[in-house]
C-alpha cells in the first residue's frame, strides 16, 4: 500500500474554478457541488490533500454512468467514501463525502445500495463495511426513512430524478427532430409539469412528516438538487 493512498483525495485542485456555488473543472469535465465541498471540509479537512486527478481518472476508466461511490483510500479499516454521479453527457458531479462525524455518532456510514461501486484501490468492498439500509422509494413495503441521508434520497428518487429523466428524454427527442415539438415531446412536457407541481405541493408536507431527520444537510442537498432541476428545464418556458 502506497503511503499516499492513506491521504483522502477529495479537494479540488488548480484545474477547478468557482462558478456560483460549485467548483468546476473544464479539464476534467467535472463539478463539485456545495454540499460536497462543505461536508468534505467538515468531515475530512484536516486529513486531506489536494490531488483529485487520480480519482477522476479512475472514474473515467470505469466507464460508469449514473450514480457511483468509491473509497477515498486503500486503508482497509477506513470506510470513508465519495458519492457522486456521471451525467448523461459525461460530466462527473461530486455530490458528497461520507465519513465519521457527529451526525452519525462518530460511526462510518453504510455504502449506498442505489449506486455503482468503483474499485479505485483494488480493495473490493472492504471487510466489515455494510450496505446502508436505504431503499428505492418506489419499492413496495419500504421502511420509513431512518436518517437524514434516507430522507434526502427518498425525496430525490420520487421527484428530482423523474423530472430530470423526463427533461433529458424530451430534449433528446427534440434534438432528433430539429427542435420541432411532437406528440412524444408534448407528453414528456406534461409529465414534467405534473411532477414539478407535485414536488412543490408535497415539499412542505414531506419536510414536516420527517422533521426528526430533516436536518440542515438535507435542506442543503435538496436545495442543490432543486436548483439543478431549474437549470435543466430553464429552456422550457412553462416553469
Structure notes:
This protein has 239 residues and is an alpha/beta fold. It has two domains: 3-117, no CATH class; 148-232. 39% of the residues lie in helices and 15% in strands. It has five helices and nine strands, in the order ββββαβαββββααα. The protein has a seven-stranded mixed β-sheet with strand order 2-3-4-8-7-6-9. The chain has a two-stranded parallel ribbon with strand order 1-5. The longest helix has 29 residues, at 148-176. It is globular. Residues 1-7 and 133-144 have low confidence and may be disordered.
Q: Report on the biggest sheet.
A: 7 strands, mixed
| Fraction of residues in helix | 25-40%
Please write the string of helix (H) and strand (E) elements.
Answer: EEEEHEHEEEEHHH
Q: How widely separated are the two ends?
A: 52 Å
Question: In what order do the strands lie side by side in the largest sheet?
Answer: 2-3-4-8-7-6-9
The average pLDDT is 76
Low-pLDDT stretches = 1-7, 133-144
Strand content: 15-25%
Report the structural category.
alpha/beta
Our count of helices gives: 5
Count all strands and give the number: 9
Overall domain count: 2
Shape by Cα distribution: globular
Radius of gyration: 19 Å
